[in-house]
Amino acid sequence: MTTVLVTRAEPDAGDFAELCRTRGLVPVLSSVMRIEIEKAAVDLAGVGALAFTSANGVRAFGANSTERSLPVYAVGPVTAEAAKAAGFQQVTAAGGDVAALADCIASESGFGGKAILHVAGADRAGDLVTMLKHKGIAARRQTLYQAKAEEALPPAAAETLKGEPGLWVTLFSPRTARLFLDLSEKAGLAPQLIRARAVCLSDAVAQAAREGAGWADIIVAQDRNAQSMIETICAAKPRA
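^ that's the sequence the OP posted. Answer follows.
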């Protein structure tokens, strides 16, 4: 059986773990951050469309506003599905990163002088608002959630790292990769990563994973989604 450390935050961690189980993998919940949604009035004055760069942004908006009629631009298919599940009808998915999202929004005919509202977290991988403004599109941001770092690895993750060679560590963002490395170092378990393989959502995530530890291997998923990460694990040859 192949063991997989799931480092992403809930509720996405539980969903990913269930996908792992359907493919015969053994997930170990190993979140290195937690999502805290803020309570705030959403300012929709002059807004012509919403932009989401994560499913957490969709959840945070949904917790603070009943508006569902505005068009939505999502960074990728997973975020787009989250928006549809939340009740949005007009949802466009971009290619999986902030630059692709900016290009997707800019390809539209226009928003009648109205602005794009980017619903975001306190930590962001890219500056969508600035990218859009450089393209001549009015945009602003409202922060509605925070991804706060955990202070230690979950006990189950630490025990798995101590005793099990050949496991996989799933890394979904550069920040997640750095936090996992930091917490592994804090627990005195960084040397154990030489027996583990990392599967990363993108090249940028892989670069962050290389910054602080020796790994048995680092592999980037072919496509930027959870299913592709699982396919990467399943397709890899077992290590002796």
